[in-house]
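Annotators were shown the component list below and the corresponding predicted structure, then asked to write short factual statements about the assembly.
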Amino acid sequence: MNYKLLELQTIGDERGKLVSLESNKNLPFDIKRVYYIYDTSPEQIRGNHAHTELEQLVIAIDGACEFVLDDGKNKESVWLNRPDFGLYIGKNMWREMRNFSYGCKLMILASDYYDEREYIRDYTTFLDTIKDSKDIQ
Ligand code: TYD
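Structure shown to annotators:
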């Protein structure tokens, strides 16, 4: 499974807490893009795609949601519900996001610019792609 839940170092005092994210220091790639998701209601499902190259770090800045991660063989569920944890997702991982709490805000740091050509949005194509990449190795 090409994902990892990372505990992010928090700098805190009586004024509150602060988390700093730096390329190739506490996250394992160069940040080229930041986007965020908000106003998603609990019955909505997002994601349902994989990336052939992109790496991402997802942080639930506020609220909670569930990620179901799938490498074509196994599926695992990860809950994001703390701003001091980040979910690193590497390439070739199918992901579904669901069970959004009201007010959930996800911030996503990405290793590259948005490029629809690098998305796999069809699950059968995903299974074929990972099979092909294993055959080449
Ligand atoms: P999508 O990747 O389907 O969202 P999610 O994975 O959260 O379900 O993206 C939704 C739309 O936004 C789609 O038309 C592509 C567009 N989009 C951008 O234009 N730039 C971006 O950086 C991202 C992530 C999506």
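Statements collected:
1. Residues 123-136 form the longest helix (14 residues).
2. Residues 33, 35, 37, 46-47, 49, 114 surround thymidine-5'-diphosphate (CB under 6 Å).
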